[in-house]
């Protein structure tokens, strides 16, 4: 379970004035959910996502994952805790000079796994995302959708409880988007991994999310349930986002 307790984040602009990217907000995401963060550009979605693994440290408030307060951890404690939180990026962020298998192995090497355990786990993850026959290729030899599957396999490799996905399908065409979303959904269902996904596409929310937090100018406007691929926001901004879909 992820608990954001009154977290906030402000950035300093070039002219030294301060800008509130995330106003104080609280949110609880249950283990096993696929939870969306949605809003217009600049709403604070990515910043909020990055507060969950402390890639951005909140100015105030606490972030609890499985009841551990990440904001109270030392640097080494935080490194350890991050093993439990995978991340998937819009532009994949693969290492171009490493093979697919070695990209997936990377977080396991950092975490100090043995070579034998890494080899087994990499094969498992390749299998899960359907890329077993591509293990010796390099990222430049894969399509966008395949690259994102490698990104997902890499995030999954250390057996995290949580995967944070920042616009994972925004660089992909609609058909590839569908297959990448199915891959995320499959991982969620098979391994009960909580997935938090930032998107500006309502279709992504409809397809795979259980709930979505709607953000507007750094404020949490409402949290909406998604049932049978439908959602009925109450807020004006939520209704606008649905209407524009
Ligand atoms: N490191 C930073 N320094 C200064 N301002 C920042 C920083 N990171 C984000 N911001 C600002 O905070 C606001 C929220 O950014 P964020 O990326 O979280 O929004 P978003 O909803 O994900 O938007 P988008 O859909 O465009 O990516 C934006 O105005 C952005 O310019």
UniProtKB/TrEMBL annotation:
**What residues does the ABC transporter domain cover?**
2-242
Would the keyword Chaperone turn up in this protein's UniProt record?
Answer: no
GO MF term set: ATP binding
The organism sits in which domain of life?
Bacteria
Q: Which UniProt keywords apply?
A: Amino-acid transport, ATP-binding, Cell membrane, Membrane, Nucleotide-binding, Translocase, Transport
Q: Pfam families, alphabetically?
A: ABC_tran
Entry's Gene3D superfamilies?
P-loop containing nucleotide triphosphate hydrolases
InterPro entries listed in its UniProt record: AAA+_ATPase (IPR003593), ABC_transporter-like_ATP-bd (IPR003439), ABC_transporter-like_CS (IPR017871), MetN_ABC_transporter-like (IPR050086), P-loop_NTPase (IPR027417)
Q: What is this protein called?
A: Methionine ABC transporter ATP-binding protein
Organism per entry: Vitreoscilla stercoraria
């Amino acid at each position: 379970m992820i608990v954001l307790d009154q977290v906030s984040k402000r950035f300093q602009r070039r002219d030294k004035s301060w800008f509130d990217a995330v106003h104080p907000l609280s949110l609880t995401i249950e283990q096993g959910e696929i939870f969306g963060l949605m809003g217009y550009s600049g709403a604070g979605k990515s910043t909020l996502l990055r507060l969950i693994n402390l890639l951005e440290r909140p100015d105030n408030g606490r972030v609890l994952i499985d009841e551990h307060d990440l904001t109270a951890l030392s640097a080494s404690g935080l490194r350890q805790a991050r093993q439990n939180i995978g991340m998937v990026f819009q532009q994949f962020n693969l290492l171009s000079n490493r093979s697919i298998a070695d990209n997936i192995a990377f977080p396991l090497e950092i975490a100090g796994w043995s070579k034998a355990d890494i080899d087994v786990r990499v094969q498992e993850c390749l299998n899960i995302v359907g890329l077993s026959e591509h293990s010796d290729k390099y990222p430049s030899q894969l399509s966008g959708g395949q690259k994102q599957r490698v990104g997902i396999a890499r995030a999954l490799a250390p057996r995290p409880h949580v995967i944070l996905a920042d616009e994972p399908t925004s660089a992909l065409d609609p058909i590839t988007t569908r297959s990448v979303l199915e891959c995320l959904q499959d991982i969620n269902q098979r391994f009960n991994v909580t997935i938090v996904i930032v998107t500006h596409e309502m279709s992504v929310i409809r397809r795979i999310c259980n709930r979505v937090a709607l953000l507007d100018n750094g404020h949490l406007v409402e949290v909406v349930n998604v049932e049978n691929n439908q959602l009925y926001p109450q807020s004006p901004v939520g209704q606008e986002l649905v209407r524009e879909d």
